[in-house]
Design goal:
Elements: E1 3-5, E2 15-22, E3 34-41, E4 44-50, E5 53-60, H1 65-75, E6 85-93, H2 95-98, E7 106-113, H3 115-124, E8 128-129, H4 163-176, H5 178-183, E9 187-193, E10 198-204, H6 207-220, E11 228-232, H7 238-246, E12 251-254, H8 260-269, E13 272-278, E14 281-287
Parallel strand pairs: 1-6, 4-7, 5-8, 11-12, 12-13
Antiparallel strand pairs: 2-3, 4-5, 6-7, 9-10, 9-11, 13-14
Amino acid sequence: MLNTLDARAALPSPLARLGAQVLSSTADGPDDALPIDVTLAAEVPVALVYNGISHAVMLATPQDLEAFALGFSLSEGILDRTQDCFDIEVRTENQASAALPAGVTAATAELTISARCFDRLKRHRRSMAGRTGCGVCGVDSFAGLELDLAPLAPAAWARRIDAPQVLDAIAQLPARQVLNAQSGAIHAAGWAHADGTLNVVFEDIGRHNALDKLLGELARSDRLGEPGFVVLTSRGSHELVRKCVRLGVHGLATISAPTAMGVQMALQGGLRFWGMCRPPRALLYAPGR
């Protein structure tokens, strides 16, 4: 059984207040600059450590990091199932111990995992450095892209998810994007029931991280197998499709367009895949199984 030690109170804020100046093309000089305070999204290095061995450092919003660590571990194939993770402890790193420059904070998610998964991780471990705009950082061969997906089992209910349900869920997202409303720079991943009712939303500066947080929470609450679909405030790239198919998610809808590889992988994996979901229309790129 997964035991999570919650250290969120010690983590830095997901938002930061800084100063800026409002300038315009009609300003005559420095006296026309208007100083204001702005709210920005925090971007924190998060180290993922398995049984004492550091595996990856990702840049993430310092919120819901336990769900992120579990979701990443499952969606990247480090764990086969939630039960392979026995414990997650999240802590803030001080500048001295982590050799960080002044003003930079970091966090570590320490996972205790099964011997079977840890042995496999050691055999396949590679150095990874995560960035908000890249989903294949650290991959050093074509095989490392893991483009060969095992298809999802057929689900009749998934093929009944249509534009009304997808657009309804997308329309519910902005009201649940609390951090983005303040900073304007944060993605969201939400889980919607098959009828289009948005159930839970997670936010992060990285679209992959937001999805991993969502998948981790669904795994922790044993809800990955229930009818529903994922909605994302991003493009539909191949690694997002791969994560969903790997964890048995049958539907994905993104606000922006997909990539060609994303569509190809959705067709291969049997994922019902929507893109350009902007009322009053959405485009269906892959019908699912």
